[in-house]
Amino acid sequence: MERSDLAVSCRGLVKRYGELVAVAGIDLEVRRGECFGLLGPNGAGKTTTMEVLEGLLTANDGAVEVLGSRWGGDDRALRERLGVQLQETQLSEKLTVRETIRLFRSFYVRGREVGEVIRLVELDAKAKARVGKLSGGQRQRLALACALVCDPELLFLDEPTTGLDPQARLSVWRILERYRQTGGTVLLTTHYMEEAARLCDRVAIIDHGRIIALGSPAELVASLGADQVVEVRARGEVAPETLAGLPGVSGVTAVDGSLRLAVREIGTLLPALLNELERHQASLEKLTTHEATLEDLFVYLTGRELRDDD
Amino acid sequence: MMIDNARFRRLRPLAELTRVRMLEFIREPEAVFWVFVFPVLLAVALGIAFRAKPVSSLEVAVAAEPAAASRIEALLHGAPGLRVHLMGKAEADHALRSGRVDVVVEASGVGEGMPQDVTYRYDPTRAEGRAAHLAVDAALEKALGRTDVLEAHEERVSRHGSRYIDFLIPGLVGLNLMGSGLWGLGFAVVSARTRKLLKRFAVTPMYRSHYLLSFMLSRLLFMVLEVAAIVGFGWAAFGVRVNGSFAALAVVSVAGAMTFAGVGLLVAARPKTIEGVSGWMNLVMLPMWLLSGSFFSYERFPQIVQPVIRALPLTALNDALRLIMNAGSPLAATWSQLAVMALWALVSFALALRIFRWT
């Protein structure tokens, strides 16, 4: 791939805070026009990676290139082309939506009209409202407006929908899809696998400062070798190994006292599974099945849930 | 024209930042109270406490054997500025302790028209005590026949410009420029840092110096209102006049506002919490509250610390304000104070910009 086709590239990225290794060697390539997601639990190193790419932090090791430039040269020219939304920035509550966007607009030589951005993020009705009076979803859209006001070539979004209700999340997704239609590139972090699956062309799953899987959401799910996941909890002695041998099972993971089976043919598995439980005189407490997702891949790779907070 | 446009565009973020800074301030009712109303209330309270009192008389207790007491009372009769009270000894002691009388005159009896064994009891640490002792003694001696050889005239000073309130108002202007500069900037900057707003600004192409300059500029505009509020109040309520020119007062006030904006930015350059910056600001301001002569003259401090006191920015500001307002000096007379302030402003601004923590 031509280097000019890359919006972001980094190799061997390492960031340490004293003893703590936040990023332990990450290689990334984000293509122009692509939406790339960093998916991982809290503390996986997503935000640190983003802040190195945004030029806020200096890496201990590795090479970073953003829109063909390195940090430490003409940084202001590079920042002209970047839109950034940081995690948990609290904009001034005393200012109105329009005043806030107008302020951010003034920092850039080129960009969109303030009114145009307000429409883009669907805040027309709130243009004159103080930021302090906005709902969580509206604040998030305002943060997005501040990132979009320079008409960026590349948009960095750190957990753009964390803490939002489903309605508000949908409207953020809608705005991002609109931005992408104009050819923009997006690099986002999230710990919502639905978000990664819905928005991203490619996803890197990060855990403990390393990429443990990389690919399109469909490829990643397919790498599980299964299309269904069966979660079983039974009272009695059932070893994971016994269930792993059942027909159609491609993998078994124990999570919080229950077993998750990655399954190819659920029709043949279910009778066999019930038989097996009966043979071990284990009484079934819970049995659920769902379509395999990125979350299941994460559980399969790490033995942990992606989300432990909500 | 093209060049002018480009230059204007370059300054637009600075204008926007300053505008936003002022909007934030005036939408914070508490801040408005502390900056404008509080100093006026302080001037009212201090002005009343130290207003020019009608010259009060000195209170004299006579605690003596009855014949001696009436003789002393007769001798003191008509002495100017003395008020005589006849008391028992215990009552007189109590009145002296509580400051109700300034001196107690005791005597054991009268012989040939002279009070016998006259004793003055007074507290030598109180100015009124010393004055009353001398006044009573002089009045008694005179009544008993001493003649004054020196003929002296008295001139009583209570002209405008030399009262305590005339001294106080410039001090309050200085104190307020320091307080609002440090608190106003310190809190705004550190709060923006804790809210990650500084970090958000740092990922835009905003000139970092513009952010700091916007605080200096917004201080400049509010300074006009602050100084006008206090000086205007002092004039309306106490007749405190600006004896020098208003232009000179404006220049000195600008210098003061810039100085404390710079110091405020420096104090706020690193702290991550409001508690942290509050501690630092108290540490910076407390010595100046005490030493810089806002409420009383710093000339009373030992000679050896005078150069240090004069190097403090608030001392320079207070001195310059008093030269303009009280002494009516021209601006040129304040050059050394202006130099001290300019040095503080430039060094603290440059240092703040250098060590400023954005993340």
Structure, described:
The complex is a heterodimer of chains A (310) and B (359). Chain A is an alpha/beta fold and 310 residues long. Chain A has helices at residues 46-53, 75-79, 97-106, 114-120, 136-148, 166-181, 193-199, 217-222, 240-244, 266-279, 294-302, and strands at 6-17, 20-31, 35-39, 61-66, 82-85, 154-158, 185-190, 202-207, 210-215, 228-235, 249-255, 258-263, 283-291. Chain A folds into three domains: 3-81 and 153-217, 3-Layer(aba) Sandwich (Rossmann fold); 97-149; 225-291, Lrp/AsnC effector binding domain/regulation of amino acid metabolism (RAM) domain (Alpha-Beta Plaits, 2-Layer Sandwich). In chain A, a hairpin with a 2-residue loop joins strand 8 and strand 9 (210-215). The radius of gyration of chain A is 22 Å and the shape is elongated. With 359 residues, chain B is an alpha/beta fold. Chain B has two domains: 19-51 and 160-355, no CATH class; 58-143, 3-Layer(aba) Sandwich (D-Maltodextrin-Binding Protein, domain 2), CATH 3.40.190.10. Helices cover 64% and strands 7% of the residues of chain B. In chain B, the strands form two sheets. Chain B has a four-stranded mixed sheet, sandwiched between helices. Chain B has a two-stranded antiparallel ribbon with strand order 4-5. The longest helix of chain B has 31 residues, at 164-194. Chain B is elongated, with a radius of gyration of 29 Å. The model of chain B has no long low-confidence stretch (mean pLDDT 87). Chains A and B meet through helix 2 and helix 3 of A and helix 1 and helix 7 of B.
Number of helices of chain B: 13
As laid out across the biggest beta sheet of chain A, the strand order is 5-6-7-3-8-9
Strand content of chain A: 25-35%
> What is the top-level CATH class of the largest domain in chain A?
Alpha Beta
| Name given to the CATH homologous superfamily of the largest domain in chain A | P-loop containing nucleotide triphosphate hydrolases
